[in-house]
Amino acid sequence: MRDHVKSYRSLHLPALLAGCAVLAAIGDASAQGCAAMRKINIGVSVAPPNVVHTSPYVAKELGFFAKRCIEPNIIQFEGGQSATSAAAATQGSAIVSVSDVAIGRGLKVQQFWGLAPRMPQAYMVSPDVKTAADLKGKRLSATGGGVGGFNWRMGREVLKTVGLTVDDAQFVASATAGRLPGLVAGQVDGVALHPEDVYLAKKQKPALNVLLQLAELMPNYMFNAYGASLDWIAREPIIAEATEKPKEAVEYAIDALTKNCVWAINSGFDRMRTQWSIDNSAENGDIEKDRKPTVEQVANIALAEEAVAAAGGPVTLGNCKD
Q: What is the CA 229 to chain-centroid distance, rounded?
């Protein structure tokens, strides 16, 4: 357990510092003395959040926001690509997870910090599903946004590996909190689950199978980056409480997230990864090809790099460098 915590802190805290530096770079208040605290709404993509999304909670608890004269209000959204999350970003009322698809569809937003470049989820399936071909005719999760949402898109990618399309399965929409219980109860036969939920799923129903790791299926997919409107831009107990998951599940997730370099320790951006994600979205019709955004339109990489510099400069920890 101590090794897990040490690994978590060594990999995660530089990312938190970088994120706070980003906020300070965009904010108006001085970091030297707080004449007034600047209030900022920060969105997380899931209600309650998964372990990978808990950076704002940890940063708030450890005083990183206060050091930069920022008073954060953390808001939980029903999916990173939900209508309410998109509206909050567009209106400039919150910093939220922003995708290339949203930008390609016309939202005037931009990414400025890559929280988690690599996908942490596994695609988990019912006991009778042994290969992706077995998903034909099955009920797959479309939690967190329905058609076009993250789980729907991941289900589509899994089906494509064996020449199937979304028309070959039935997608079931529900709240993000229903991902794990839906699979355990047999309401769906396939769903993308975060590491802590994979742990709980196997514990509650050992016959469930991990079909594949999404990061292995799409290694260049840009998973999660924080952003805001263009105008706006012009520790474990904390995590367990935030996620409402048991301690052992959180420990399992932290180990998986750090070992697989899911959390960013620098800016979290790689131009090739961002370009791949844009091209993939256009290829699949999520973005109209003639409206495909450039890397510069999707991500303000220069701003993120300035934030890393303000936090002490880029670092490499083990095999992790994003």
A: 18
In Å, what is the CA distance from 181 to each residue of 28, 67, 204, 303?
44, 40, 10, 40
| Whole-angstrom distance, CA of residue 183 vs CA of residue 176 | 12
CATH, domain range 122-217: 3.40.190.10
H/E stretch holding 155: helix 150-160
Per-residue pLDDT of the chain (322 residues; tens, 9 = 90+): 334 434 444 444 444 445 444 444 444 444 457 788 888 888 888 888 889 998 888 888 888 888 888 899 898 887 666 677 777 766 777 788 888 888 888 888 888 888 899 999 999 999 999 999 999 999 999 987 788 888 999 999 999 999 999 999 999 998 888 899 999 999 999 999 999 999 999 999 999 999 999 999 999 999 988 888 887 776 445 677 678 888 888 888 878 888 888 888 888 889 999 999 999 999 999 999 999 999 999 999 888 888 888 878 888 877 888 8
> Could you say which DSSP state residue 299 is in?
B
Domain spans of the chain? 2-118+220-310, 122-217
Q: How many Cβ atoms sit within 10 Å of the Cβ of residue 3?
A: 8
Q: What share of residues in the chain are helix, strand, coil (percent, to 5)?
A: 45, 15, 35
What is the Cα–Cα distance from 228 to 235, expressed in whole angstroms? Answer: 26
Strands 38-44 and 170-172: unpaired
Written as one letter, the residue type at 220 is N
Q: Which CATH architecture has domain 2-118+220-310?
A: 3-Layer(aba) Sandwich (3.40)
